[in-house]
Amino acid sequence: MGTAFDTETLRRGIEGHDAKALLSLYADDAEIRVVDRNTQPSHPMVMHGQGEISKMLDDVYSREMTHKLEECVVQGDKVAFTESCEYPDGVRVLATSMASLKDGKIIEHTLVQAWDE
C-alpha cells in the first residue's frame, strides 16, 4: 500500500496561499491539465513537471483573493476536491479537481474552473 495523500497540507496550502506546500503534493514528473473558458477541452493548458506547476501555483496563490477548500475525497489512488475563491471585487471562481496518485503524490491532475461573468 502506498503513502496516504496529505489532505491537511492541501487545505493549509489552499487556504493559507502556500504555493510551496501545495507543490510538495505533486510528484516531480506530475502533469496538470486545466480546462476553463480560455483553455477549452480540445485545447487545455497542460503543465509538465514541478517547474511549470510551481509557476502556476505561485501565480494563483499570490493573487489578492480568498481560497477555500470546500470538499475533498480520497479513494484509493484518486483524490477529488472543490475549491472556491473570491476576488476583492466580489468576482468568484469555482474549481473542481480530479487527480491520480502514486505513493501519496499527485501524478495527473485535471482542473476545471469557472468564473463569474
From TrEMBL:
It holds the Pfam family SnoaL_2. Residues 12-109 form the SnoaL-like domain. This is Nuclear transport factor 2 family protein. It comes from Streptomyces melanogenes.
